[in-house]
């Protein structure tokens, strides 16, 4: 991961939009906050991280959408209402990704393995 991260710079992003996304694996619908600025950098980061050792785990049958999940339900109209309520307001959430963190998730516990500061 450290070798791959050398080419990755800090990612600045701004979110101004909520979207609805149907889950590919179950009956849920999800409300996502999706970045306007930074979107392509997150996609490129995703592609870099899912190369080499992780390439067999890359799902090519579903689109990758950079997002922050804000809710979900099996009731698509409830999720649509949530997304509409967000999008009726003018909002802007800006931030920066400074680090990549490699973790182990086992027995409902997250353990940090490695943290890499981006340029």
Descriptive overview:
By secondary structure, the protein is of the alpha+beta class. The protein has one domain (about 1-115): Alpha-Beta Complex (Cyclic Phosphodiesterase, Chain: A). The chain has helices at about 1-5, 40-50, 75-85; strands at about 10-20, 30-35, 70-75, 95, 100-105, 110-115. It has a four-stranded antiparallel beta sheet, with helices on both faces. A two-stranded antiparallel ribbon has the order 5-6. The chain is globular, with a radius of gyration of 16 Å. It starts with a helix and ends with a strand. About 10% of the residues are buried.
Write a brief caption for the model.
With 119 residues, the chain is an alpha+beta fold.
Core attributes:
alpha+beta, 3 helices, 119 residues, globular, two-stranded antiparallel sheet, four-stranded antiparallel sheet, Cyclic Phosphodiesterase, Chain: A
Structural class: alpha+beta
Name the strands of the widest sheet in spatial order.
3-2-1-4
Strand content: 35-45%
Q: What's the number of domains?
A: 1
Kindly provide the radius of gyration, computed on alpha-carbon positions and rounded to a whole number of angstroms.
16 Å
Order of helices and strands: HEEHEHEEE
Poorly predicted regions:
none
Overall 3D form: globular
Please identify, by name, the CATH architecture: Alpha-Beta Complex
- Assembly type of the shown chains? single chain
Number of strands: 6
- First and last CA, distance: 14 Å
Biggest sheet features: 4 strands, antiparallel
Q: What is the topological layout?
A:
Blueprint: H1 2-5, E1 11-22, E2 29-37, H2 39-49, E3 68-73, H3 76-87, E4 93-97, E5 99-106, E6 109-117
């Amino acid at each position: 991961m450290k070798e791959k991260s050398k080419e990755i710079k800090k990612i600045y992003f701004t979110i101004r939009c909520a979207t609805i996304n149907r889950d590919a694996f179950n009956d849920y619908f999800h409300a996502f906050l999706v970045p306007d600025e930074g979107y392509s950098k997150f996609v490129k980061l995703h592609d870099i991280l899912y190369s080499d050792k992780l390439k067999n785990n890359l799902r090519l049958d579903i689109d990758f959408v950079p997002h922050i999940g804000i809710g979900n339900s099996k009731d698509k109209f409830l999720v649509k209402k949530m997304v509409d309520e967000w999008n009726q307001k003018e909002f802007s959430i800006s931030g920066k990704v400074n680090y990549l963190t490699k973790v182990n998730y086992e027995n409902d516990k997250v353990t940090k393995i490695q943290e890499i500061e981006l340029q």
